[in-house]
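Entry 12.
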Amino acid sequence: MYTNLGRPCRNFNILAKTVMIDPLDGREKLVLSNFVAGGTGSLILVDTKSHAYEVIPLPGDEGAWGLVNWFDQKLIVGTCPNHAYLHCLDLQTREWAPPLSDPDEKYFWDLTLGSDGNVYGGSWPGCRLLRYDPITHELHNLGRVSDNPANHYSRPVYGGLPGTIFVAGGFSESFLMAYDMQKGEFQSVDAPGYTVREANSSFICLEKGTERLWYDAASFQRIPDLDPACLRINEITLPNGQSCSVIALANGRYAGVRGQDYFILEGLSDVPELQRIPSDPTPTRIFTLMTDANGQVWGSSGFGQTIFRYDSVRDEAWNSATVCNAGGEVYGMVTVGERLYLSAYVGGDHLIYNPEQPWDQLNNRNPRMLTAASPAYIRPEGRSVLGPDGGVWTGWSAKYGQYGGAISRIDPDTQDVHIWPEPLNNGQQICGLAADDHYVYLTTNGGASGLPSREVACGFGVWKPGVGIVHQTAFVEDEQTGNAIAAGKLYVFIQAGTSLHLFDPNTMAFVQRIPTTEPCSWLLQGTEGTMIAFIGNEAVWFDEHSTQIVRKEQLPGRVRAAARASTGELYFAVGDTLYSFRNTNTIGRDASVDAIIT
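Predicted 3D structure (tokens):
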């Protein structure tokens, strides 16, 4: 029977911020929109002088990119990732209006206040522009922003120009549109890939990276470049040279957020002093699990770019600050000696962290960034494994708007990173990675960032370090692969469709297919020659020699992350909760174990 070890993974994940004068006390408040992966998001209101705070849970959904202060009377919130709720908080009563939503949408991206007093927001997957009337509490769908059916993202939006809402998006084909409030029509702006840096009655400034385009606000015609000093300040430079976005407060002050910290500047000449966001960090979904040589459990948060460590002996947990400069989450975790190697989305980052040394991510000392897989590859969908050559191997997915994948290797001795694009030459992302004493095994599928997943003939490959691909094949199209792949003593187990496929490295052939009631969500090598498959709400132990089920345990939910200690103890996560089996030895087969097999 499993044991509940609590919820050790906790963090803040601030997706948006605004500032308001609170009608209850007349004081200036910094409003932070906190995303809680696997839970319910919240607003954190921080007094910009006293730093006293108030936490207000959202009525529903995990969090919000969209946040607008509506004239210090209401806070308008657009949520994600499940419902695209439009929430409206009355600041005088602290009461939420009934949630609104568009039934076809999952995400609100950012929101903006239009000159007509309405609030506008972009969406996913419908690539629409939505309009909310805070007076009547009505949500209107203004239609798709792009004619390209492969475009699913309308983000960001900008409402600073009277009478106009700018909407950028993609990712199949970048676009920038201007919505005319009076005509109710969209007009294309010939600057795909650009977003609005600032727009007002005097000028429009578009930005793409370090490039800027300037337009006349009335005619939308190009004008000579203006002095950048006319732009409002929206970011400052931290002491280490990194930029950080800021929001203007009263009396020339500014506020900003960096990961788990925030700061208040009395003036732009001040050096930011980071301090932890007030209130207690919220338990959040566990995304990745592993154990080290000392038996401690390591894991990453489902969103928010933090990691945690759980000491099962002391029943103590530690949570990190932000591990890198980009947003997203840590996918891959591998220990080599005393060092922890991480791979993270969305920056395609490879990182190295030494738990025995002081934390100093801000100055890129610990954790320290190694050569990134970006810009070509950004999501370590296949996670990371320790290869037979002692290298740390990671499977990658391509950048937004592209299909494809790569594998990378970190040399733990030199910290050099080598990247091999398209190891199977099939234009698919690497979705699963495993290794034994001889090979690295990989699976691919049709997933991508910013594009719809394709139903393809998913691939399987065997990579020999120092040589390359020595065997590859493809599954039939209705057998889609995921993250579930593990190398055992005899076979490599791979989930494809509603089956476990057993590959024999000695003969370089698939030797058996075990049907299951639903796709396996995770695979893990067990003790005594077993393979543990997480199928639905059950953990199933297969004996590798006989390929028969020898144990089955009911679980509290679906498992997407699990790890086994060298002592045999099995750890697994369901949502934000960590569990363990204190004894993972196999047991005698009983008549009920066949229920998992179709």
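Annotation: The chain has a mean pLDDT of 95. Residues 283-332+351-370 form one domain.
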